[in-house]
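Fill in residues.
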């Protein structure tokens, strides 16, 4: 009887721990010790990372994202090939190439999908272009259906990120200091607005986060070390807030990188490269305005990207230069972070649950 109880207990513990684990895929730069995309296990109860393995060898997969059914991963190759690739996730969690297409410009740095996983958009930082691809039923990429060039004779474009929202496509251009808005008409995107708000003093809009209802957009500015808060109106958009991401006592150089809303949208997080911190903001859900409540060290160097885990209880930060991923616990009441642990990963720059 005791033996039976022991076996039952061990089986319960095994399956409970397995249920708590979720896969984390890590995009990296491969000009050092990294070989491509890595896969780790993250425990959503303890916050521990474990079982690091190489999922696939590929050049500079600096940004990766899932298909809707999470059976495929799409990644850019920010290197000599300047490409976007569809990867199939195998039963053992490793990846295999489904197909690859040109990104139609140097320096692809961001990729995202529309809600139904029928279209992919890739931003090319070096070329200042972005490309839209229709997907086949198996998730493979067709040749780009549209390629947009934001360069002018006098101004250089650096398209840094793009996101679909319903029939809109927003594109952040760090070089032109603009957040473009495109509208879907039939099966093509047409320019709606060359910038939804005026970006003064060269802030360098990099990434942005859109609220679930689409009424608010939060833009993190690489050069300005700031967040521009924007509200949708009947006539278009208007700026409602502008906040520094830096601690008031920090006076060194800094470049902002990534930005995310909490699952309940009560808090907003942004990463500082230089100060090497995560800035935490309390968000007024009705007005959309922000108040900074914390700057916390990332326990590493150069936090290019970070993500919230599926439980919404943890934030994981990819520190490129220090070759580690830091884990923070989120206080769900006040949004503040507490450092838990870190794990070594070579040149991590994109985290994907």
């Amino acid at each position: 009887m005791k033996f039976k109880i022991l076996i039952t207990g061990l089986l319960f513990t095994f399956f409970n721990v397995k249920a708590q684990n979720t896969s984390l895929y890590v995009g990296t730069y491969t000009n050092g010790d990294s070989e491509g995309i890595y896969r780790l296990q993250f425990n959503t109860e303890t916050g521990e990372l474990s079982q690091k393995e190489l999922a696939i060898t590929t050049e500079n997969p600096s940004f990766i994202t899932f298909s809707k059914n999470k059976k495929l991963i799409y990644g850019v190759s920010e290197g000599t090939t300047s490409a976007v690739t569809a990867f199939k996730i195998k039963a053992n969690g490793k990846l295999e190439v489904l197909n690859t297409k040109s990104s139609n410009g140097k320096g692809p740095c961001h990729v995202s999908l529309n809600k139904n996983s029928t279209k992919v958009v890739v931003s090319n930082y070096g070329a200042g272009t972005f490309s839209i691809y229709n997907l086949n039923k198996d998730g493979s990429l067709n040749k780009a259906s549209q390629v947009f060039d934001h360069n002018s004779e006098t101004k250089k474009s650096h398209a840094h990120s793009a996101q679909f929202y319903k029939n809109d496509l927003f594109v952040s251009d760090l070089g032109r200091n603009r957040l473009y808005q495109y509208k879907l008409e039939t099966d093509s995107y047409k320019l709606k607005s060359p910038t939804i708000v005026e970006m003064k003093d060269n802030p360098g809009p990099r990434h942005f986060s859109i609220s679930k209802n689409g009424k608010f957009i939060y833009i993190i500015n690489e050069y300005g070390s700031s967040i521009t808060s924007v509200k949708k109106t009947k006539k278009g958009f208007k700026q409602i807030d502008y906040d520094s991401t830096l601690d008031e006592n920090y006076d060194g150089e800094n470049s902002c990188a990534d930005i995310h809303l909490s699952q309940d949208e009560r808090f907003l997080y942004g990463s500082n490269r230089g100060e090497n911190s995560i800035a935490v903001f309390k968000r007024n859900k009705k007005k959309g305005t922000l108040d900074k409540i914390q700057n916390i060290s990332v326990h590493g160097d150069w936090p290019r990207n970070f993500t919230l885990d599926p439980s919404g209880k943890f934030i994981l930060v990819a520190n490129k230069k220090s070759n580690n991923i830091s884990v923070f616990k989120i206080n769900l009441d006040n949004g503040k972070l507490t450092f838990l642990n870190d794990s070594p990963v070579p040149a991590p720059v994109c985290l994907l649950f």
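Residues 276 and 298 are 6 Å apart (CA to CA).
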